[in-house]
Specification:
Elements: E1 5-9, H1 14-30, E2 33-39, H2 47-60, E3 66-71, H3 75-83, E4 88-92, H4 106-112, E5 119-122, E6 133-138, H5 144-157, E7 161-165, H6 185-211, E8 217-221, H7 226-233, E9 237-244, H8 250-258, E10 263-267
Parallel strand pairs: 1-2, 1-4, 2-3, 4-5, 6-7, 6-9, 7-8, 9-10
Antiparallel strand pairs: 5-10
């Protein structure tokens, strides 16, 4: 196995075929090997599915090196294990029909919390291989890995990067309103925190801009409704990249269930 590879889970469903196609495209962009994994209880069951996947790869990407594996294991464990050495792991968001059992659907959500590297969950309703931009949702300075991944993705695709800074919601203790707008202790503290967050975000993006000068970057900040703002932005993007924290928050859940393009979750520092 090569150190640089893209892993994809298949199960014979239509969404798995789309996941295979996108994983192959990602492998081509990276100059990486593609590993096709089918998790089953009996290896003999995997032969037809893996053979069909191999034929599709040969037809669409004749020069792409790839490997296939029938893993006798739980799908989450098998793909989480694969993710440890992968540049990217790709799965579909749900299974269609009964072929292959339960690889997708709820399993993809469980997998989202266990991968050791970037995970692409394939969903959406438009093509992803054109000149659509890469979308980055930034929550905090812990999302440095997600930001770096988004810049690299935009550079590989030669497209714009749209950065939407959506700070995590903080609980605010109620206080008596000030007679002068924005001058109560709580309001001043909130304003200071917002300025600090924006400074951290700008500093991190500035460093990545220097490292990737060919990437055109558009930035914006949203204070309310970050999940809805990011969801709307996915209508025009090829892929959305967000950080994955200890627990999947409302933004991640919204995108995984309703995004108009594939979602990439990148583990960060908590």
């Amino acid at each position: 196995m090569t150190a640089q590879h893209v892993a994809v889970g298949v199960d014979g469903s239509l969404i798995a075929v789309r996941a295979l196609d996108l994983a192959a495209e990602e492998a081509v962009r990276r100059g990486a090997t593609l590993r096709v994994v089918y998790a089953v209880s009996d290896r003999d069951e995997a032969a037809p599915i893996l053979a069909a996947a191999a034929e599709r790869i040969h037809d669409r990407h004749p020069g792409l090196p790839f490997e296939t594996e029938a893993a006798e294991d739980d799908p989450v464990r098998a793909l989480a294990r694969e993710s440890a050495g992968a540049a990217l792991t790709v799965v579909g968001t749900r299974g269609l029909g009964t072929v292959g059992g339960t690889l997708f659907g709820s399993v993809s959500l469980r997998l989202a919390a266990h991968t050791h590297g970037p995970l692409m969950i394939v969903r959406g309703d438009h093509p992803c291989g054109d000149d659509r931009a890469v979308l980055l949702g930034l929550e905090s300075d812990a999302d440095t890995e997600a930001a770096a991944h988004a810049f690299e993705e935009a550079e590989r695709r030669a497209v714009r990067l749209c950065v939407l800074h959506a700070p995590a919601h903080r609980h605010a203790t109620p206080e008596l309103p000030s007679l002068i707008p924005a001058t109560s202790p709580g309001q001043r503290r909130q304003a200071q925190e917002e300025r600090a967050e924006e400074a951290v975000s700008r500093f991190g993006i500035a460093r990545l801009r220097q490292a990737h000068p060919a990437v055109t970057v558009d930035t914006g900040t949203v204070r309310t409704g970050p999940a809805r703002a990011l969801l709307e932005a996915t209508r025009e993007c090829a892929v959305v990249v967000i950080g994955r924290h200890r627990h999947l928050g409302p933004v991640a859940h919204t995108l995984l269930h309703r995004s108009h393009c594939p979602v990439v979750l990148v583990p960060g520092t908590d």
